[in-house]
Amino acid sequence: MSAVATTLQIPRLTERGRVTLGRVVASEWTKFITLRSTLWSLGVGMFLTLAFPILFATVTAARWSHLAPQERADRHPLDIALAGVSVAQLAIAVLGVLMITGEYSTGMIRSTMLAVPKRLPVLWAKLGLYAAVSFALTLPAVIVAFYSSQAILDRHHILQISISDPGVFRSLVGGALYVMLVGVFALAIGALVRNTAGGIALFSGIFFVIPPLMNILPSNWNNAISRWLPSEAGRQLLALTKDPNRYAQWPSGAIFLGWCLLAVAAAAILLRRRDV
Amino acid sequence: MIEAVELTKNYGEKRAVDDISFTVRPGVVTGFLGPNGSGKSTTMRLILGLDAPSAGDVRVNGKHYAEHPAPLHEVGALLEARSIHTGRSASNHLLALAKTHGISRRRVDELVDLVGLHDVGRKRAGKFSLGMGQRLGIASALLGDPATILLDEPVNGLDPEGVHWMRTLLRQLAAEGRTIFVSSHLMSEMSLTADHLIVIGRGRVIADTSIEDFVRKASGDRVRVRAPQAQRLRELVLADGVSVTSTEADVIEIEGVTSEHVGELAAANHIVLHELTPLQASLEEAFMELTRDDVEFRAAAA
């Protein structure tokens, strides 16, 4: 038997700081970039944002001579440029949910809340970080998508618009804002539900199940309700021309933002109240 | 320093912690002992502000945990439940926690070395064994160099070398003047590390005492005597409340008297003693005796 009383050198710490919102953001950034799932989701999301417009433009150009005049009239170059957004939003939504539910499913949330026991700074940091990242990635992606799809269409001399045409740049920015708010909404849903499958199911229900259900209603009811739904209001951010059955771009965007703030407020209240 | 006052926690109908009060002092290792399901982990979660108490109050270093502007510098904790994202490496996990307090990457590296995870620091934590997970938990508890350290079942999953390392670490941390609060359901482990014991059963404090007192109280007065005239001594000592058992002709075990009494009695009657030993119950026996009525899950008697 070893009689050697080993002593450990436990290093002491001289610098002593305190928790600040800026530091919590730095911590969340470290968490964000040190998970493969983050990089995968963002990569897939941005790939789809670019790939769909290129695919749509290529197919449209190839089939253009076979299209009836009515079909030609239905094709709009901005719809093609923003075709990836409706698919990319899924990747952004899933990652938004995962950013918080991943902590609950693995137990990381306990470490997080021990370091930041006031809890709310964690929510603000995650929301701010994710909103900034998704906007900062999506805006260049839709602009590149716009120019790439235009370049393909240009070779066939069809469907040409300019980014300086009225409303075009605004719609591209609207597309990036839409994706950003989808991320915020999904993250808030994740914080409310605290479960990955449940969070994704709830998001999908709100965005992909409720809107088509509205078609069951008489059309005047449908229009009166649909314009207030988060998904439908949010989609107007991308619209170049106003849909007569919806509110205009920015008022609709404000409705979607309102839903996001509501979800965030509910998440914040429950985060404070519930046991971790 | 941890001060709990009339602390209570209900989960729905079930009362997990029932009106407990205790103080954990700096400079010693305080063991928090109880059978599974007795409320140890819940109490730890209440101390750390993860759960809100249903009634009562608990402060650590003078404040509620959440009121500390830099909690990791005040309190370090290793929870029993896993508290790490499985997709992140040990180093990055610690770095993310360090950043909330502006603690440097150098500190993270120091602690990864201290707990012996140097070679696997970049590996995803999901691939860690239980023992490696515990070591990582220790590193995160020590990250902020805190004055108070809470460890929930820290030797779970450690190999013998790891258990020894943990004991050395705890003793040293206490010697540095820190408050060390360690839970366990293993009495034998506590006896080797703890100076003071808080025993809990079914959410209530059963004992709050030093290790020595705990054993003394649980042992009662039992004395073993080896003497050629053991049978004569047996007749002399027998009285109300005294029982004697014998395994060999010259050995008796007497229950209900002190060794002093037996020695004096033998001297007065010129009985030669070859051995006179006060017997201690083992800590395990003492613990089981104390918590017998408070064990929540018991194997049904056949």
Alpha-carbon distance between the two ends of chain B: 45 Å
Kindly provide the radius of gyration of chain B, computed on alpha-carbon positions and rounded to a whole number of angstroms.
24 Å
Strand composition percent of chain B: 25-35%
How do the strands line up in the largest sheet of chain B?
Answer: 5-6-7-3-8-9
Compressed to H and E, one letter per element, the order of chain B equals: EEEHEHEHHHEHEHEEHEHEEHEH
Largest interface: A-B, 43 and 51 residues
Number of helices of chain B: 11
Number of domains of chain B: 2
> Class of the largest domain in chain B in CATH?
Alpha Beta
Protein model, in words:
The complex is a heterodimer of chains A (276) and B (302). Chain A is mainly alpha-helical and 276 residues long. Chain A has a domain at 26-48 and 84-138 and 162-273. Chain A starts with 20 loop residues before the first helix and ends with a helix. Chain A has helices at residues 21-33, 36-63, 69-74, 77-81, 85-106, 108-115, 120-155, 168-193, 196-213, 219-226, 230-235, 249-273. With 302 residues, chain B is α/β, with parallel strands linked by helices. Chain B has two domains: 2-210, P-loop containing nucleotide triphosphate hydrolases (Rossmann fold, 3-Layer(aba) Sandwich); 221-278, Alpha-Beta Plaits (2-Layer Sandwich), CATH 3.30.70. Chain B is 34% helix and 26% strand. In chain B, helix 3 crosses helix 4 (105-114), helix 4 (105-114) crosses helix 5 and helix 8 crosses helix 11 (283-291). The mean pLDDT of chain B is 90.
